[in-house]
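Worked example (supplementary).
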Amino acid sequence: MKIPEALLAFLNRERKFFIATHINPEADALGSSIALSIALESLGKETIVYDKDSVPEIYRFLPGQERFTNSISNSIRRGGQISNLILVDCNDRERAGLENIEFPYSSVIDHHETAREFGDIKWIDPKAPAAGLMIFYLIRGLGAKMTEDIAINLYSAIAIDTGTFRYSNTTPEALRIGAELIESGADPSLISENLYETWTENRFRLLLKVLDTLEIIDNVAITSVTIEMFKETDTAAEDTENFTGFTRMLKTTKVAAFFSEIEKDYYKVSLRSKGKINVAVIASTFGGGGHRNAAGYKIRSGLQAAKDALLRAIKQM
Amino acid sequence: MKIPEALLAFLNRERKFFIATHINPEADALGSSIALSIALESLGKETIVYDKDSVPEIYRFLPGQERFTNSISNSIRRGGQISNLILVDCNDRERAGLENIEFPYSSVIDHHETAREFGDIKWIDPKAPAAGLMIFYLIRGLGAKMTEDIAINLYSAIAIDTGTFRYSNTTPEALRIGAELIESGADPSLISENLYETWTENRFRLLLKVLDTLEIIDNVAITSVTIEMFKETDTAAEDTENFTGFTRMLKTTKVAAFFSEIEKDYYKVSLRSKGKINVAVIASTFGGGGHRNAAGYKIRSGLQAAKDALLRAIKQM
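After joint prediction of all chains, the assembly is encoded as:
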């Protein structure tokens, strides 16, 4: 993995950085940003770590998660401008909810396929299994110490984006870096417990209701959640994190689709695929995006019409 | 990992081997046995690979699984004796259903904690995450080629016993060997799909019924299946493979227990634990066994009495 010289020079030269990542952040976005912040500060730099949304409850085990702020402080926002942006795990301002801010100088570190034109320095590697893997090399390239806190953040980042080494992006390199991160202090079982085994009973009951909605049509496994179900189980949309992937376990599933009601006739749709079907392309036809095997979009329509539109789009692939 | 010299000498010296593993075999038992058979045969040896039970449907993707036989041929059984036994992933004759056969010369390769006195050559390493890891070193020690078929079997073996690198037995070494096995031809996503994502719809409906039985008592998450549920969903006991671990996802779960009705007032009980609770010890009080975080036993009693007995045993830990 080749780090652009301009990126290293930029990080070595400047003293203050504004690290931002995408809305609805998960462990790759969060862990990568936190790890980079810890490493840069260990080299005497100052960082602000920003996400428009708060850190979801389930990711609050990440050491250093309290670095995240969702307010853009006045000290940084000089006349609506922020310099020295480092955009992590996304590659345009909109994904970070920063569309109204000007960035006189900015860098991008991302592994998503749908690259936009934003950024003075761009390091976009769609072959990287996780942004966390890129940050691992970057931290090493900067000569910062791989501390236990950094290791936990990067291991979590790589774990969530590879399904802890189950998805097709699991490379020998990802496993070897995982091994190094364990040696630097990441505890794989503690991290897996935190990522996958900290469900509340309410969330579990919600999952059962969602799985009961299963329909299988043309190898597409469709599940859905309604606002009513959230009420019945005292849960919220953030409790459905990772619900989409459950129906991948069915042998016949080629695409798993999960429809989450945001408001009447407005749905968030999450897609997961097995094998070669590129759901990022399907999501982009509805104005969304993502990775080959995990993508999403939002749609204003009734549930049945939204399902039908998706099935048509998949058929046309 | 130190392979006993006597084991290498035995495998190099002899020409015919009877490789056997435990009843109710899973991917570690199966993959380790198949890999060893392929490697020994590549060195000009003859092997018979034995399991008392058939290879479960979900493990028939393992290349070389057709090597398994569940009949002890007369050519081997000279007067009720079998020489040159290699017992894999278990360490006594009973676990392999071979209690009535004499073994004039035998070796044991295992990583279970509850070691018995059986075997002329014993290589028992409870620190090994999987028997597959031991076989990896053994194959290298024998100088056999690490073929794609061997790699797939060993990767599957390590994957199933570490929860694909999620359990507390996930070591840097396990990840690095995983990386080597990918380089030798194991496809991590294809293996994960085969291990976790080949469910029939009937099996999925059975899981939903089982999860609906959830009770949480003193941080023990209890689920159960009845013969009636098997009938309703056209499934059988082997379809409940991996059901026990599902309720580990609940934050409050310290022990996950799954009661499977074999016949009226007779249950198979599977236990999984998080963290430090040693369920092998609990299972052994009921005449069963296993690993620290995964164990099981059978009990003749009604369901409620069986649950109560387990809860008492856990409390006394």
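Two points are worth noting when inspecting this output. Chain A has two domains: 5-196, 202-315. Residues 159 and 166 of chain A are 9 Å apart (CA to CA).
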